[in-house]
Automatic annotation (TrEMBL):
Compositional bias of kind Basic and acidic residues: 1-12
Lineage: Eukaryota, Viridiplantae, Streptophyta, Embryophyta, Tracheophyta
CDD domains in the record: BAR_SNX, PX_SNX_like
Domain PX: residue ranges: 110-232
MF (Gene Ontology): phosphatidylinositol binding
One cellular-component annotation, GO: membrane
Amino acid composition bias (Low complexity), ranges on this chain: 33-44
A Pfam match: PX
Name of the molecule in the record: Sorting nexin 2A
Region (Disordered): 1-101
Length: 538
């Protein structure tokens, strides 16, 4: 979402050559042990071959870079906790492990390596892919207790398999959205940039799983993080294969050679993920009846509180999307003003050189010095805008992250709707079966001695009825389980959203206030220096 171009750490990088910066050298004093600039530090300003040094009590140009009154909150509470927002992908840091008495699971993704795909193809060359070193440290008993550390190599396909298995096993849970395959980006981006972007995305995704109170204890995640070699999780069968199997089975179901009733074991899984096309058709028909048939289903969603929360989630998503767009506009505006301020400073530098080189009067030299002060303040303000923008991206990017959370919430809602549709379909099938049995029994009773063929059909339908009742019972239990998962997950998401948004707002506001104070000090000092014009004029 919010991306910020790196325009360098020095004002000279703002579309200017090093020669343009010769007359603007800012010697910043080293910070003292408490993070404040040393009071005895001095500032040197080169003036055409000569150096004028002034103490910090007089003309200390670097005084504007000293942390303002918000410094502790900005640079300690938020920035230092994330190691300045940087992660070394080649050498994971273990310095920030939580205390041993608290349960933790920390994951690092690093060291991407290119490998060749092993195939039986006779065509030389083959395809290649990247694997990533995944390092895990934890004290959780599921992983062996305190001091446990594991390293495995995984490819992106393994992450897809993990995501699919979690979605199947934890229906109704708000499962973090895995990174996209990004086929298009891999073709238009530099390969190194694409690999690094994917590494960072995988690290963020796995650590989201690691803090989920339920998923972090899952057997699927443990196997992914611990077992070396081939991932011991069954891969998803692609949609084409499932549809092909279902197409082969369908004629036999229609002719009665194969069971045409939902299997008890499959009732707890969504129809669209299975190979039973007949069940898919039945649930599709039930869905159409629900929406357009004008007949109220036998089983409906009766949780009014859930329906209200679902509507609020949809409204929240819309507002969050708009807010995310505005945050992106703010980042772009701050970036533009920072670049423009740097360009302004460098333009004053060039004008200063012109004034100085052709100076014939003392007033020209004085004017050139004052313009150089303006240039110094502008370039420093440009740097401050870049620092502020980095902090803005860091904090407001939480908005974009929560758009992903909303996608996960809607996926959990879809699990609930799918389970309810299965219950509704099975309920309709039971009514239909019971009606057919009653009709056959009524017809058979009118025939003296009974109708053996009808009696056999009745027995078959009763057996099907029993299987369908068991399947419905299983589907109802699954539906109730998903409902409970939805309820507990919504409570968890609400708690985390409160904490995350409070941290985001606090960080954003304090950084805006802190950097605004720095910039105000810069221009205030400059105003005091240039006020001599007015005094001299009077």
């Amino acid at each position: 979402m919010m991306k910020q171009e790196n325009h360098g750490d020095e004002g000279a990088n703002l579309h200017a050559s090093q020669d343009d910066m010769e007359s603007l050298v800012l010697d910043e004093p080293p910070p003292s042990s408490n993070g404040q600039s040393s009071p005895s530090a001095s500032t040197s300003v080169e003036r055409h071959g000569t150096t004028a040094t002034t103490s910090s009590t007089s003309q200390n140009f670097n005084s504007i870079l000293e942390p303002p009154s918000y410094a502790d909150a900005i640079f300690t509470s938020f920035d230092s906790s994330s190691s300045n927002g940087q992660e070394n992908p080649k050498q994971p840091s273990y310095q920030s492990d939580p205390p041993s008495r608290s349960e933790f699971l920390k994951i690092w993704v690093s060291d991407p390596e290119k490998e060749l795909e092993l195939t039986n193809s006779l065509v030389p060359g083959g395809t290649s892919y990247y694997t990533y070193l995944i390092t895990t440290r934890t004290n959780m008993p599921e992983y062996g207790g305190p001091g446990s550390e594991f390293t495995v190599r995984r490819r992106f396909k393994d992450v897809v398999t993990l995501s699919d298995r979690l979605s199947e096993s934890y229906r109704g849970f708000v499962i973090p959205i895995r990174p996209d395959k990004s086929v298009v980006e891999s073709q238009v981006m530099q390969i190194e940039q694409f690999v690094e972007q994917r590494r960072a995305a995988l690290s963020k995704y796995l650590n989201k799983l690691a803090v989920h109170p339920t998923l972090k204890k899952s057997e699927e995640l443990r196997l992914f993080l611990v077992v070396r070699g081939k991932l011991p999780l069954a891969k998803s069968v692609d949609m084409a294969s499932r549809m092909l199997d279902g197409a082969v089975r369908l004629p036999r179901q229609l002719t009665g050679e194969a069971a045409a009733v939902t299997d008890v074991n499959e009732a707890a899984q969504p129809a669209k993920g299975g190979r039973d096309l007949l069940r898919i058709f039945r649930e599709l028909r039930q869905s159409v009846v629900n929406d357009w048939g004008g007949v109220k289903p036998m089983v409906v969603e009766e949780d009014k509180e859930f329906m209200e929360r679902k509507e609020k989630v949809a409204e929240f998503e819309q507002q969050l999307s708009n807010l995310s767009q505005q945050a992106e506009s703010l980042v772009k505006a701050q970036q533009d003003i920072g670049e423009t301020m740097g360009e302004l400073g460098l333009a004053f530098v060039k004008l200063t050189k012109l004034e100085t080189e052709g100076a014939m009067f003392e007033s020209q030299t004085i004017r050139a010095t004052d313009m150089k002060n303006v240039a110094t303040a502008a370039v420093k303000a440009s740097r401050l805008y870049r620092e502020l923008n980095a902090q803005t991206v860091k904090h407001l990017d939480k908005l974009h992250e929560y758009l992903g959370v909303i996608l996960a919430v809607n996926s959990a809602f879809s699990d609930r709707s799918s389970a309810l549709l299965t219950v509704q379909t099975l309920s309709s099938e039971l009514v239909s079966l019971q009606s057919r049995i009653e009709k056959l029994e009524a017809t058979a009773s009118k025939i003296f001695g009974g109708d053996r063929s009808r009696m056999r059909k009745i027995e078959e339908l009763k057996e099907t009825l029993k299987v369908s009742e068991d399947a419905k019972s299983c589907a109802v239990r699954e539906y109730e389980r998903i409902k409970e998962n939805n309820r507990s997950e919504l409570e968890r998401v609400d708690r985390e959203r409160h904490e995350d948004f409070m941290g985001m707002l606090k960080g954003f506001v304090l950084n805006q206030a802190g950097y605004a104070e720095k910039m105000a000090n810069a221009w205030e000092k400059l105003a005091e220096e240039t006020s001599a014009y007015k005094r001299d004029g009077n």
